[in-house]
Design a protein that fits this description.
The protein has 227 residues and is α+β, with helices and mostly antiparallel strands. Helix content is 47%, strand content 12%. It folds into two domains: 3-100 and 196-225, no CATH class; 103-190, no CATH class. The protein has helices spanning 11-18, 22-30, 50-63, 80-93, 103-110, 127-137, 142-159, 172-191, 222-225, and strands at residues 3-10, 95-102, 198-204, 213-214, 217-218. The longest helix is centred in the last third of the chain and has 20 residues, at 172-191. It is elongated and about 65 Å long. It starts with a strand and ends with a helix.
């Protein structure tokens, strides 16, 4: 199983970074002034550390040949996957919160709130699905949503003939607590997606760079990203 990874991104800051020449971008990484473009972390969540992303950006610059550092990332004569790799790093740099979850668990958290079935885990990479989910989620409060997730999980276990007695399965209570916490955080996370200046970065562990998206647009696509 792989984690689906969601980040809330400060979009105007992201646009500023992709509008910089690579020379300016790399210089700001080296003198740490790129940190002025990083939004404040929402303390309820995690995100990639500054130093890790800075290292990844400079590692990208070292391994990609044919860079024209006087031009922006979207003007580079390189592969779409290479453009996407850097722009994902820049989007993560502009993230103020990250939420991630096993794709198998997401069915439990998301599908009951939708008016249609999710065909496979790749559907979780679609921005339209998250729009539908957020629309439905906005009609319920955090506690009610979390309780519905736990109750649905319990009913699914019972349908499979699995015990709900902690004395028979010591994983029951920790798993219940995990579902409760994760679903509450998902509600909080998406409740913050309420501004035109916030974008949703959607990806997954081991996913090709060119398949990550920002508000449904692939990150190698200049016209879609900067509109």
């Amino acid at each position: 199983m792989a984690d689906v990874i969601l980040n809330l991104v400060h979009h105007s800051n992201f646009q500023k970074l992709v509008s910089m020449t690579l020379q300016e971008l790399f210089e700001k990484v080296e003198d740490s002034s790129l940190r002025n473009y990083r939004p404040e972390l929402d303390s309820r969540f995690h995100r990639d550390f500054d130093v890790d992303l800075e290292g990844d950006i400079m590692e990208w610059s070292d391994k990609i040949s044919d860079l024209v550092i006087s031009e922006t990332i979207y003007s580079q004569p390189i592969k779409e996957s290479e453009i996407a790799e850097l722009t994902i790093l820049l989007a993560k740099w502009c993230s103020f919160s990250e939420w991630r979850c096993w794709d198998a668990r997401l069915f439990l958290y998301v599908e009951p709130m939708l008016e249609y079935n999710i065909s496979n885990s790749n559907d979780f990479l679609k921005f339209s699905l998250w729009e539908d989910f957020m629309s439905s989620l906005s009609k319920t409060d955090k506690k009610s949503y979390s309780e519905s997730v736990v109750l649905d999980w319990m009913s699914r276990r019972e349908e499979l003939g699995e015990t709900m007695e902690p004395s028979e399965d010591p994983r029951i209570l920790p798993t219940m607590s995990s579902h409760s916490t994760s679903s509450e955080l998902l509600h909080i996370f998406l409740d913050s997606f309420d501004s035109k200046n916030i974008s949703l970065l959607i990806g997954r562990e081991y996913l090709e760079y060119e398949s990550w998206s920002l508000n449904g647009s692939y990150l190698y696509d200049l016209e879609e990203i900067v509109k």
